[in-house]
Amino acid sequence: MSSVTSLSSVANTVRQRVTPEEWEVRVKLAAAYRLAALYKWTDHIYTHFSARVPGPEEHFLINAFGLLFDEISASNLVKVDIDGTLIDDPTGLGINYAGYVIHSAIHGARHDLQAVLHTHTRDGIAVSAQKDGLLPISQHSIAFSGRVAYHGYEGVALDLDERERLVADLGDKSVMILRNHGLLTAGVSVEHAFQQLQGLERACTIQIAAQAGGNAALVFPPAEVVARVEQQAKVFSSGEGPGVTRHWNALIRQLERTDTDYKN
């Protein structure tokens, strides 16, 4: 891990040159990366999580291209603006351009959303490749009923024009399934976006497991039950209430049993 140690040495002055508010967001975003690694939601050095930098500038934080998720820390995140200019690149590794295209689209259009998380998990991609998408067959999936957007696959996201279509497909939602590609959640905070991602990943895993029964018919709850759960889940989808904080605090306790380097 000498290369990671070297990268940390290069980045050790970051905290001194950013605001306390930005540092707090950096720590939370780095924790989200480490938690994704803990849950094995990673795709080597690919996929990306981002968070808006507090303040009037249109800046957001994203991972350096080449680091594994369990190597991300508060100080080695890259700061970039909406136009793709690297504002602060402590490691000199730059960023994944496809990540820039996807994340800049949402940060540029949806100022109500502070964090955007994107994964390429096996079960997430499997559901994204199914014509009917996420099915209302579990409590986890029904909680997302009526609030999942879908975006058709256009190839690796290297075309800036795709940003317009991605934002149009997202609409006023904060959860999206990228067809043949993966999952995306956004939130009013890193904590909120992560809670949504964890629920969505779980829903996809349950769906794939249920479908593994072959010819066994699936049970779909009645429409009135689905509607009731939609109403019950609104507090979670909004990011308001104590639930998001409690969920995040429990995640951090779990992470810090084995990993505290994310805060460096």
Produce the secondary structure layout.
Elements: H1 2-11, H2 14-17, H3 20-38, E1 48-52, E2 59-62, E3 78-81, E4 86-88, H4 97-109, E5 115-119, H5 122-128, H6 139-142, E6 148-151, H7 162-170, E7 175-178, E8 182-187, H8 190-211, H9 223-232, H10 234-238, H11 243-255
Parallel strand pairs: 6-7
Antiparallel strand pairs: 1-2, 1-5, 2-3, 3-4, 5-8, 7-8
Helix pairs in contact: 4-7, 5-8, 8-11
How would you sum up this structure in a few lines?
This protein is of the alpha+beta class. It has helices at 2-11, 14-17, 20-38, 97-109, 122-128, 139-142, 162-170, 190-211, 223-232, 234-238, 243-255, and strands at 48-52, 59-62, 78-81, 86-88, 115-119, 148-151, 175-178, 182-187. One of its GO terms (biological process) is monosaccharide metabolic process.
Written account of the structure:
By secondary structure, the chain is α+β, with helices and mostly antiparallel strands. The protein has a single domain (14-263), classed as Class II aldolase/adducin N-terminal domain (L-fuculose-1-phosphate Aldolase), CATH 3.40.225. 44% of the residues lie in helices and 13% in strands. The chain contains 11 helices and 8 strands. The chain has helices at 2-11, 14-17, 20-38, 97-109, 122-128, 139-142, 162-170, 190-211, 223-232, 234-238, 243-255, and strands at residues 48-52, 59-62, 78-81, 86-88, 115-119, 148-151, 175-178, 182-187. The chain has an 8-stranded mixed β-sheet, with helices on both faces. A hairpin with a 4-residue loop joins strand 3 (78-81) and strand 4 (86-88). Helix 4 (97-109) crosses helix 7 (162-170), helix 5 crosses helix 8 and helix 8 (190-211) crosses helix 11 (243-255). The relative contact order is 0.15. The model has no long low-confidence stretch (mean pLDDT 93). It comes from Pseudomonas orientalis. This is Ribulose-5-phosphate 4-epimerase/Fuculose-1-phosphate aldolase. Belongs to the aldolase class II family.
